[in-house]
Amino acid sequence: MNGSITFTMIKPSAVESNFTGPILKMINESGFRIKAIKLTQLSKERAEAFYGVHAGKPFFDGLVEFMSSGPIVAVILEKENAILDFRTLIGSTNPADAAPGTIRKIFAKSFTENAIHGSDSDENALIEGSFFFSEMEQF
Ligand code: CMP
Questions:
Q1: Are strands 72-78 and 116-118 parallel, antiparallel or unpaired?
Q2: Closest atom of ligand 1 relative to the 112 alpha carbon
Q3: Catalytic amino acids?
Q4: Nearest Cα residue to 103 out of 92, 89, 86, 87
Q5: In this structure, are residues 66 and 11 in contact, taking their beta carbons and an 8 Å threshold?
Q6: Atom 7 in ligand 1: residue holding the nearest Cα
């Protein structure tokens, strides 16, 4: 897990709150380069597919509802040790547990509305990035 590419999504509540700029500034200032970026909206079906691994879990329906509720910003990022460094930058999945100064601590509203996604492995970065960017294999 030490590749140079990761995938992130700024989630609907953070986009709606106009946090896209401040979040991207933090990402850039932490040494990540933007390789591809897109403002788009997931349909309910696409959100179900993206989060298929969580199907059946108690939070799944709320997660799909939320993730399809408004525009998201999908981004491919490059930096040495991208996966681990990005997960450190965004903080714990549950913002209640996130360290001070992390993106989720600053911008998240709740466990589901946690502002931002970060891939958890090189393999998932490729799968998730390919979900939004046809050129993913080239990065
Ligand atoms: P993320 O890791 O980006 O993608 C899956 C999301 O599911 C996760 O962020 C959280 O927003 C959400 N999630 C995971 N576990 C829970 C939980 N126990 N309760 C509510 N939401 C959750």
A1: unpaired
A2: 11
A3: 117
A4: 89
A5: yes
A6: 112
pLDDT tens-digit series, residues 54-96: 999 999 999 999 999 999 999 999 999 999 999 999 999 999 9
**Helix or strand holding residue 74 (H, E):** strand 72-78
Q: Answer yes or no: is the C-beta of 139 below 6 A from any ligand 1 atom.
A: no
- Please give the CATH topology (third level) of the domain spanning 5-138: Alpha-Beta Plaits (3.30.70)
Give the residue extent of every domain in the chain.
5-138
Write out pLDDT tens, residues 10-59. Answer: 999 999 999 999 999 999 999 999 999 999 999 999 999 999 999 999 99
Q: How far is CA 40 from CA 10, 43, 99, 120, in A?
A: 11, 10, 29, 22
Please work out, in degrees rounded to the nearest 5, the angle formed at the alpha carbon of residue 93 by the alpha carbons of 64 and 13. 50
Q: Does any ligand 1 atom lie closer than 6 A to the CB of residue 131? A: no
Q: Measuring CA to CA, which residue among 131, 130, 110 is closest to residue 139?
A: 130
